[in-house]
Fold each of these.
Amino acid sequence: MDDHVIDYKSKANGRFSGILRWPQFETLWVALSSSPQEWYVYAPNEGAPPAKPFSADEMKDFLSTTETYLRERCTSDFCGAVYADNVNDPDFVKIYNPRLMGGCGMGKAALPQWLISHIAPVSLLD
């Protein structure tokens, strides 16, 4: 297996902190939106990983749309669907569909709705 594949999958399965409260979420969103580095956004259930990172405008739109999506689905003061390797200086973020968390997965771990990273993603379905 290629080193890049191993590195991406290792990071995707690495240690993450849950973003439990909205103030933590807002801190993370500021870090993502103000990072000068490029971001890849991968939706594993929607097809092949992207070949190129998002432009600054695409990232801004994605963050805005995703925040609206999460706030509509997590209506209490508890977020809990977002995980980051580092809240203040993230390199890798996983966002789950809040409505699919905590249910019966029939022994299978649920895939994140989106993965955000600085490194080019590889398929997690292999």
Amino acid sequence: MALATLLSGGCLSVLSQSGPDSVPAAAPGSGLRAALVDQEADWGFSRGCTWTAELQVANPGNTSEKNVHLQVELVNARTGAVRDAKDLFIGAIGPGEERTVRVVLDGECLDEYTVRAIPVVSGP
């Protein structure tokens, strides 16, 4: 029975969005917002523990934003260390539009994490 428990593994922690009072992160100099929509933790022999985060990037402003990237970090809730990071290209987001993206991040099975997701507009 103990061997079955060891082999089944599992990711025990919960992923949450970091930021002041869990307010969705905003892109510097633009009105873009990013928010954690859904999450799923998984364990496998090949990768260990992974966190799949579904994030929504919204443009509540009045102007189109081009060359939008979403910088996503899996951050250890206890130490503040970044465990994994990804840069996702979103493209253009028009006024009032929203985009949903999924990202898989690698973590340690027994640690607790938060996710930082910051939309960034690059170039003109």
Amino acid sequence: MEIKIKLNGEERLLDKALDIASLFLMLELSAENLIVELNRELLHKNKYEQTILKNGDELELIKFAGGG
């Protein structure tokens, strides 16, 4: 079943419902330096594998970098 999400402001079609961790694999991203906001709420890293994206979800991936 195809689902439509909004990823960083752009609509995207997924072939099937994925969890956040699987989406990172598909996009070849590391969760290490990312903050995830799902439907305007921050999502803790320990929930990435349990959170299944649904049709209409809005996902913001924010990359952070340390410095000094």
